[in-house]
Amino acid sequence: MLRSSSLSLSLVSSILALGAAAGCGGSYGASRFSAESYAPRAKGPMPSGQAAPAAPAVSVVSPAQPASATTPIAKEEAKPEQGTEHYQDYGVNPFVDTKQDRLSTFSIDVDTASYSIARRYLSKNGSLPPFQSVRAEEFLNSFDYGYAPPSAQSRTPFDVHFAAAPSPFTKGHHLVRVGVQAKRITPAERAPVHLVYLVDVSGSMGGADRIELAKKSLELLTDTLKPGDTVAICTYAGDTKVVLQPTGVEDKQRILSAVRSLSTGGGTSMGSGIQLAYDLASKTLQKGHVNRVVVLSDGDANIGRSSHEEILKSIEQYKNRGITLSTVGFGSGNYKDVMMEQLADKGDGNYTYIDSEREAKKVFGEQVDGLLQVIARDVKIQVELDPNVIRRYRLLGYENRDIADKDFRNDKVDAGEVGAGHSVTALYDVELADPNALPSASAITVRMRHKPAKNALHGGSDQALESTFAMPQAAFAASFEEAPESYRFAVAVGAFAEVLRKSPHAREWKLADIERIAGAASAQRPERQELASLVRAAARLSR
After folding, report:
1. What span, in angstroms and rounded, lies between the C-alpha atoms of 374 and 183?
2. Of 235, 400, 342, nearest to 18 (Cα)?
3. What is the C-alpha separation between 181 and 179, in angstroms, rounded?
4. Which CATH number is 158-186+374-482's, of 1.10.3110, 3.40.1000, 2.60.40, 3.40.1350?
5. Region class of 50: left (phi > 0), else alpha (psi between -120 and 50), else beta
6. Which is more confidently placed, 85 or 223?
7. What is each CA distance from 196 to 218, 276, 316, in whole angstroms?
8. How many CB atoms lie within 10 A of CB 219?
9. CATH of domain 193-372
10. How big is the CA angle at 85 (ends 83 and 88), to the nearest 5 degrees?
11. Model's pTM, two decimal places?
């Protein structure tokens, strides 16, 4: 999972206090546009979705005013009130002239929470999601596009797949998809896993869509473990409690009984709970094994007696020792997305949001290898666009994953973690230098840099490796209709996110067109058909 070098300790500490003040730097030499700048609205707590009076209030942190093309947009502080949801507006990437900056560099990101949150708003709340909650990359990475993994003989754990076609939304533009697929592993190849379930059992976690769904998620996760794996369980509310000392999965029924015994009540002291989880994880810490704390919460917490800086320093220290931290979000009304995302960022883990049992089965069943087996660390992507072929470009999403171009080969700069079978998708909106000419094979080059995972399978190393992938000329389709079906669906997903987050570049994009594209590329797959239905629901709510 993906760490952005631009996220400072001061930002996350403010988040942990349930307020934030952040800077929004850029590696492209240009500022981020703020959707709020183009659709002015009141600062601070505000109705979510703009359409349903019964929806929870939403507190956001947003860029304040438009800035010059070379000045980062400043953030203003917005302190959420109790009983509100909390999201961060990271702005929208601008177009970049390739003659001024031909390199687009960012940390890899496999989080998917934003899409699940939007689905909850549209299907359960009956309202549009707050635009600040929409992160385009997490929409894109919520779907399987069928990328082929690298061959068994490949020296790199990734393969990169390209596709491009004329934009169906903006005349004279092309949309380029860059798809990264990580290698898959067999159960025999997976290193032993030592997990600590840190469960929020405060009063705010009561209910079927919170603690009960969290317990179901943990049952599913436990069922995927194999001999040699261990599980420990601890909880936090008004105080902390060890529910289960590290226990081998051979005693699975004991683990499941401990999970099923969890109940809610009391206040929330997350900081003390995190320390207790690390204490338990340290008992089973083994070199070459996967050691991870999994936090399950609605994020609505104080941090206890420890200071913000102490908790962040602790998370970083344990990460460097080999204990990572992932977060799993639940609930609505008081959900703190910013806190949950940034805790996972600091802990080099994944951030997911579970809005249904079906999503729990997807995350902790179908895609569990990505959580349990890390195959690469500090993964960075640098996309080079040839100024002779592409006049200007913009990356859809990844605004809070920026890495300065000069830091691509600076291996001290933290970046993202990738698990087995993970896939990552990026979309670029580009204008060709010659719209009438077929782009050459030199149009786009992708470089990926990573450190091998430290586990039993690879042994691990701090020596970074770099791979280069060139986009073939054949990847450019002559028309949008001729492009691969999975590409067309990815375009629909990215476009939907752009419209929901009020991107100034998508003002003229129509939800009806997006629904049509998604439906035509659904291939009768339920998750794709669901996307089309959510676009339709958003269109109704937008009238």
Report:
1. 10
2. 342
3. 7
4. 2.60.40
5. left
6. 223
7. 11, 10, 17
8. 15
9. 3.40.50.410
10. 145
11. 0.85
Handedness of CA 12, 14, 16, 18 (dihedral sign): negative
Amino acid identity, position 368? V
Q: In the chain, which residues fall in CATH 3.40.50.410?
A: 193-372
SS3 197: strand
Digit-coded pLDDT (tens) for 371-404? 888 889 899 999 999 999 999 999 999 999 999 9
95, 88 in Cβ contact below 8 A? no
Give the orientation angle of helix 113-120 with respect to helix 526-542, to 10 degrees. 60
Measured on CA atoms in the order 103, 104, 107, 109, is the torsion positive or negative? Answer: negative
Radius of gyration of the chain (CA): 22
State the residue for tokens 């994953």.
401
Provide the b/e sequence for 300-324 (b: ≥16 CB within 10 Å): bbebbebebeebbebbeebbeebbb
Task: Confirm if 416 and 158 have CB atoms less than 8 A apart.
Answer: no
The band of 60, judged by pLDDT with boundaries at 50, 70 and 90, is low
* pLDDT surpasses 50 at 452: yes
- In angstroms, rounded to a whole number, what is the distance separating the alpha carbons of residues 2 and 110? 7
Q: In 188-235, which residue ranges form alpha helices assigned H by DSSP?
A: 213-223
54 neighbors 81 (Cβ within 8 angstroms): no
Q: How many CA atoms lie within 13 A of 447 on its CB side?
A: 13
| SS3 call for 164 | strand
Are the beta carbons of 296 and 210 closer than 8 angstroms?
A: no
Quote the strand ranges of 94-191, DSSP E. 96-97, 103-107, 158-166, 173-182
Structure tokens at 411: 């291996």
Q: Give the span between the Cα atoms of 31 and 65, in whole angstroms.
A: 11
Taking the alpha carbons of 92, 96, 100, 106 in that order, is the dihedral positive or negative?
Answer: positive
Instruction: Indicate where the chain has its CATH 2.60.40 domain(s).
Output: 158-186+374-482
